[in-house]
Amino acid sequence: MANSTLVPQHWHDLPFGDILQAEIEAALAPWWPRIFGYHLLKVGALSSQINSLQCSIARHFSLFDGHGANIQAEPHYLPVQQHTIDAVVSCFLLEFEQNPYQILREFDRVLISSGYVFIVGFNPVSPVFAGKILPKYQGKLPWNGQFFMPSRVKDWLGLLGYQVLADERLMHHSLLGPVGRQAEHQPWWQKSLANWLPSTGSVYVIVARKLTVPLTPIKDKSKINAPTWSTAPSAGRTGLSKNN
């Protein structure tokens, strides 16, 4: 892990963690009735605490290296058979792993064709990045972790053969000062960012689906020989000869 001693195990380990959790659960709620199957895997301690009771998938399991997990294991190697999971939820997990792409590869290994992955992380192009600049906060959660651009995460998913269905931003706030729970209590600058620069939300929620059919490569047309005209000696006439 990026930091073996300072990794969030509960939502209250993060600043305004209860508000973060509520915002994320609200963003995920519309998706739960839309996915079906037998197994939902929540990877990471924070993911395990996400409310997914409205999900249509029958069985929900949590996996992390800690007390209370249904499966105690490290996320970089999931002790799960391949192609057995219908959906994976990952909340603020990639930020604290040395090899985040390996985590995504493990998700891909265990997911069935057409399976869903829900990835929640901190957006570096947002007010929350201020804590990365200020020495007072650099060693504290969540600023001690790595912040990956949402576009980079989507590129990783694209390499693995996933279609991004949604990319949403939440919490246009630095998390360094008071956070208003209601819109009317939010400062003017926070409302302005949400209205005029929605992509600068401090939290991203990416929903992607595993493609069932790989893309068919297109033949290189430059390697296809064009038909040529040749003279037929016996008849003294021209004929069409194809060289394929």
Can you describe what's shown?
- The chain is α/β, with parallel strands linked by helices and 244 residues long.
- It has helices spanning 17-28, 45-48, 100-110, 130-133, 150-159, 188-196, and strands spanning 39-43, 59-63, 85-91, 111-122, 162-170, 203-210, 228-232, 237-241.
- The strands form two sheets. Strands 2-1-3-4-6-5 form a six-stranded mixed β-sheet, sandwiched between helices. A two-stranded antiparallel sheet has the order 7-8.
- The chain is globular and about 45 Å long.
- Residues 226-232 and 234-244 have low confidence and may be disordered.
- InterPro entries: Methyltransf_11, SAM-dependent_MTases_sf.
- It comes from Shewanella litoralis.
- This is Type 11 methyltransferase.
List descriptors.
8 strands; disordered C terminus; alpha/beta; 244 residues; 6 helices; globular; six-stranded mixed beta sheet; two-stranded antiparallel ribbon
Task: Summarize this structure briefly.
The chain has helices at residues 17-28, 45-48, 100-110, 130-133, 150-159, 188-196, and strands spanning 39-43, 59-63, 85-91, 111-122, 162-170, 203-210, 228-232, 237-241. The chain has 244 residues and is of the alpha/beta class. The strands form two sheets. It has a six-stranded mixed sheet, with helices on both faces. The protein has a two-stranded antiparallel ribbon with strand order 7-8.
